[in-house]
C-alpha cells in the first residue's frame, strides 16, 4: 500500500502545478504583462494608399488648425525618426492632409506631406482613436498601433519616448522593412 501512496504523492507533485496554472488562466486570475506603450489596434486597419515598401511610417492627420497637442505630435514626428539611429532609414513620418496646407513651413519642416481624399479621412475617423492620434503603419500599409495625442510638455516628451520604444521593438522583430 505504501508504494501506491508514494506514487500518488509523486504524481500530485508534478500534476498540481499544471492544474493550478490551467485553473488560473481559465478563470482569468492572471493578467499577462504588456510591453507596448501605445494602443494596439485590433484588428489592424489596412490602408493600401499608405503602403511604402521597406518603410515603417508614423502617420498623423493634420487638422485645419494646429493647437498645442498638434504641435506636440509634429514635434514627435520629427524627433522619433532621428532618435531611432541606424533604423532611421527604415522610418518615415507622414502628415496626411486633405488639401494643400497653408500652415507655416517651419511647422511642417522635415515632414512628408501626403494629400489624400476624404474617404481615407472618414476611414481613419471611424477608428477607435480617431484623427487626433499618431499611428504606426507597417510597410504593407497596416496601421498597427495608435498613440492618442496628449497635452503638456512632459506628456508630449513621454509620448515621444513611448513611440520610439515601441518602434525600436517593432523594427527589431520585423522581417518586413
Your description of this structure?
This is Cytochrome oxidase. α2 packs parallel to α4. It is built from four helices and six strands; from the N terminus they run αββαββαββα. The protein has two domains: 1-32; 34-172, Glutaredoxin, CATH 3.40.30. 40% of the residues lie in helices and 21% in strands. A six-stranded mixed sheet has the order 1-6-5-2-3-4, with helices on one face. β2 (56-61), α2 (68-83) and β3 form a beta-alpha-beta unit. The protein is an alpha/beta fold and 177 residues long.
Strand content: 15-25%
User: Radius of gyration from the CA trace?
Assistant: 23 Å
* String of helices and strands: HEEHEEHEEH
Strands side by side in the biggest sheet = 1-6-5-2-3-4
User: CATH superfamily assignment of the largest domain?
Assistant: Glutaredoxin
Large-scale geometry:
elongated
